[in-house]
Specification:
The complex is a heterodimer of chains A (95) and B (200). By secondary structure, chain A is α+β, with helices and mostly antiparallel strands. Chain A has one domain: Arc Repressor Mutant, subunit A, CATH 1.10.10.10. The two termini of chain A are 13 Å apart. Chain B is mainly alpha-helical and 200 residues long. Chain B has one domain. In chain B, helix 2 packs antiparallel against helix 3 and helix 4 packs antiparallel against helix 5. The two termini of chain B are 19 Å apart. Chains A and B meet through helix 1, strand 1, helix 2 and helix 4 of A and helix 1, strand 1 and helix 4 of B. Strand 1 of chain A pairs antiparallel with strand 1 of chain B.
Chain lengths: 95, 200
């Protein structure tokens, strides 16, 4: 059986958590991601930037009632990467 | 959380499942609109019944104008909520379209019944229509009280030809209790429970 390499961008706990949340919703804001991953704001911000640089997510900054709001959405490239990652995991786990 | 370098394939799969479940169980529906619509329609039904059956006063039907006030409130509420929302879900979008289609169908149905002067058909058809978005929303968000309430609406619609026409308006009152008010309170309870769990 051929074992595929796991995508290093996704094979990180926090980045994988973020992508798994974003695959399930249309879009989500920073607070939602922070609450559900239990990450610190600084760490989450760094990992979101890495996912953005890889083209896996789109990040939109806007103001909501005079407060800055960061909205994240998974891109088609991110969906494809997540799909490949899960398939690779399945070959390892023989699911 | 474990350090990143010792995350195994099994850990990854468990993390994915746990995050997807968290997103799936993020209830954004707090039931407020169900409660407002439910109580207003129930109030209108009771006033309309008492006014026409006991007081024989046709002017009492003006009470239904309250629906326009709720409609204005709903537009403001949805616009305000849109700015505050933290996630946009696929189910939320589907439900939005389902209720939009319901509103359009409702106004078209009332317009057609009034144009053909078939006023006695309005209430039974309202019961049929109430069930449609309620059932679909119940199925989409997997919330049993909503689809059970929808089935109650259709049973009441089926009963309406056998009930004196003056009393059919009371059936609408019963329908909104089953389809909107009861699920509205249960949705609100579920939402508050989730919020309590997050802040705890």
């Amino acid at each position: 059986m051929e074992f595929k390499d796991l995508d290093p961008i996704l094979h990180s706990q926090l980045r994988l958590a973020v992508i798994s949340l974003l695959i399930s919703v249309h879009e989500a804001d920073f607070t939602f991601l922070k609450e559900n991953t239990n990450a610190t704001a600084g760490n989450l911000s760094v990992q979101i930037n890495k996912l953005k640089e890889a083209g896996y997510i789109d990040v939109k900054k806007q103001f909501s009632h005079n407060y800055p709001q960061t909205i994240c959405r998974i891109t088609p490239k991110g969906i494809e990467a997540f799909d490949n990652y899960v398939k690779a995991l399945q070959t390892y786990l023989k699911v | 959380m474990k350090p990143e370098n010792i995350m195994t394939e099994k850990d990854s799969m468990e993390l994915i499942t746990s995050m997807i479940n968290k997103a799936k169980n993020n209830f954004t529906e707090r039931g407020l609109l169900y409660l407002i619509w439910g109580w207003v329609i129930l109030g209108c039904c009771l006033i309309s019944f008492v006014g026409s059956y006991y007081l024989h006063n046709p002017k009492v039907q003006w009470v239904w104008m309250a629906v326009y006030l709720v409609l204005i409130f709903q537009v403001i509420y949805i616009r305000r909520n849109r700015k505050h929302r933290r996630t946009r879900t696929y189910t939320g979008e589907i439900n939005g379209y389902v209720w939009l289609v319901f509103m359009i169908a409702l106004f078209l149905m009332i317009f057609i019944c009034i144009s053909f002067q078939t006023y006695q058909l309005i209430d039974p058809l309202l019961l049929v229509l109430y069930g449609v978005p309620t059932f679909l929303t119940g199925m989409v968000i997997k919330f049993r009280p909503l689809w059970v309430g929808a089935i109650c609406c259709w049973i009441l619609a089926l009963m309406s030809p056998f009930i004196p026409s003056d009393f059919v308006v009371l059936e609408i009152g019963l329908a909104v209790v089953a389809a909107w008010i009861t699920p509205g309170y249960l949705l609100s309870k579920r939402f508050n429970k989730q919020r309590g769990a997050v802040t705890a």
